[in-house]
Amino acid sequence: MPREARSQRVEAIVLKHADFGEADRLLTLYTREQGKVRALAKGARKPGSRKGGHLEPFSRARLQLATGRDLFIVNQAEAIEVYSSLTEDLEALGYASYVVELLDKFSADHDANQALYRLVRDTLGRLARGEELQLTVRYYEVRLMDLMGFRPELQVCLKCRKAIRPQDQYFSFDQGGALCPDCGRHDPIARPISLAALKVLRHLQRSSYQEARRAKPNRDVQVELETLMNAYVIYLLERNLNTPRFLHRVRHPAKQKEKP
Question: Which contiguous run of DSSP H or E holds residue 96?
């Protein structure tokens, strides 16, 4: 947001918040108009605050932001979508956390991208409605890669430039896409990718969400794709993520209890 603007109305998704002072809340927002910004909601933690209930993580709200010395100040907040159903399903909550964590890590401050805003808005809505979690998040990852300039090449081998044939292949993080078996087996950091998983990624790349829903990968392919995409994201960001560990604990609670 231009600093000379004293006040502006925006539509925003709350990515995260933290306590600030005795009663305030520090927010990281992704706005439709200005991209990612940080703002202070004064008094949001006070009992009966009119702002607090409109500024929970993942919620979408209309905000009046004023320019402060170092941060924007939330003068007014009106929730559009709260997505309260996410708190009733820990796995859906974990995926929603993953969605906003990727948005936070990949986006720069004050860099508006309305297509990215719509993608995150729609993805959170799908998760809240209980649509198929794995497919929803894989579609989000593929579209996020497109918007951030990291679309993987899946049609030709990135080394020899030959067309990818219908067989198991390799995926190269540093080159950004597929390698044929001849090239991939000589690349020490390329990962194998099954033909079934490659077909799903190709389908997601070329499809609208409604078309993408026709994909019905089995459990093994779902696990393969999640592992691959998580690793690719970590490679691009050059840092680990918090939410995959949370999802692992949700799915395998017995293993957590076995730890001393």
Answer: helix 90-106
